[in-house]
Amino acid sequence: MAETLEQRPYGRTGEPVTVIGLGGSYLDKHSLGDGVATVRRALDLGINYFDTAPAYGRGASQVILGHTLEGCTTPYLLATKLGYLATPKDFRSPDALRAQLWENLRALRRSQVDILQVHLAEWACWWKDGADNQPLSLDETYDFANAAVMQVLREAKAQGICRFISITADHAEELAHVLRHVEVDACLVAYDYTLLSRKALKTALPLAREKGVAYIAAGVIKSIGADKGESPDPRLNELQKASGLSLVTLTVRYLIADPAITTILVGAATPEELEERVVAAQAGPLPPELHQAVEKLSLP
After folding, report:
1. 236-261: string of b/e by CB count within 10 Å (b at 16+)?
2. What letters, b where the CB count within 10 A reaches 16 and e where it falls short, cover 188-204?
3. What tens digit of pLDDT does each residue of 14-31 get?
4. pLDDT beyond 80 at 224
5. End-to-end CA distance of the chain
6. What's the whole-number mean pLDDT along residues 64-73?
7. Are 268 and 220 in contact (CB under 8 A)?
8. Residue 300 has pLDDT above 70, yes or no
9. Does the pLDDT at position 225 exceed 80?
10. Quick one: which of 12, 29, 98, 23 has its CA closest to 53?
11. Can you give the residue ranges of every domain in the chain?
C-alpha cells in the first residue's frame, strides 16, 4: 500500500483532509485493543480525519481515540459531537451542552477539538422548546441561528475550544433545511448518498457546495448491507457479483468519483476492515461503464 490517499480541501477552510476518514462508531465492536489497533493503522495509512461522538460505544469511541491519538505529531483533524443528552430540555440548555463538551474533551484527553458538530440536527428538540427527538418539520419556521446549540458552537469556536463547527444528520432534506439558516464550516449526511440512494444530490450536497461548506458522506457502507457482505437489494447483489468487486469496494470507488464529497467517512472495527476501504480508494473511481451501471440502480 505504497500509494498515498488523495486529499481534498475541507470546505472554505482550505485544510487538506484525506478522502477517506475513519468513523468511530465501530471502534469498540470487538475489543478496546482492536479499536486502538484500527486507529493506529489509520495513522499508518495516512488517514488524517477522525470522527467520533459521546454516543458511540457509550463513550468508548472517544476514549479509544483519545488514548491512541495522544501525543501524535502527524497533522490530523478530530471531530466530535454534542447530542444524545439525558432529556429533551437539555438540548435547549447552554449549560448542559457546555458540560457535555467538557466531558468530551476529558475523554479525548485534550483541551481543544478540531471540529465540534451537532449530532442529528434534524431532531426538533434542538430548535424548539418542548419538542422531543422527532424530525423537525420542513414546513415549520425555527430560530435555527439563535438555538442554544448554535450559540455554544459559536462560543467554543470564538474561545479556541474548537476550530470549526458543523451539523450532521441522517436525512439530507432535513439537514439542508437547517443548513440554509446557519453558518457552519462543514456538514455530514449519513445514508443519503450511497449505491442505492441519491437524495443528497438534490438537497444537501448542492447547498453545501454553494455555501463553501465541507461535505462529509457517512453511513455509506452500513446503509446498503455492505458490512454484512450482501445487500437486501437483489439488483445490487447481481451487479456486485458481475463486477467481481466487494460491496465495500464498489461503494468507495463509486463515491470517490464525486469531487464535491470532501471525505467519505468509513467505519471499521479492525485494521483489516480499514485496509480494504483504503485500498479501494487508492484504486480510484470505477470504470465508466460500471459507474453508469451503479447510477441506474438509484432509487427515486
Report:
1. beebbeebebebbbbbbbbbbeeeeb
2. bbbbbbbbbbbbbeebb
3. 999 999 999 999 999 999
4. no
5. 38
6. 96
7. no
8. no
9. no
10. 23
11. 7-295
H helix count then E strand count, the chain = 11, 10
Distance separating alpha carbons of residues 3 and 97, to the nearest angstrom: 41
Q: Under CATH, domain 7-295 is a member of which superfamily?
A: NADP-dependent oxidoreductase domain (3.20.20.100)
Overall pTM > 0.85: yes
Strand 7-9 and strand 16-18: the pairing is antiparallel
CA-nearest of 300, 285, 299 to 232 is: 299
CA-angle at 246, arms to 244 and 252, nearest 5°: 120
pLDDT value at 1 more than 60: no
Exposure string (b/e) for 38-77, b if CB count within 10 Å is 16 or more? bbebbbebbbbbbbbbbbbbebbbbbbbbebbeeeeeebb
Q: Summarize the confidence of residues 114-131 as an average pLDDT.
A: 97
Tell me: pLDDT of 299 over 70. no
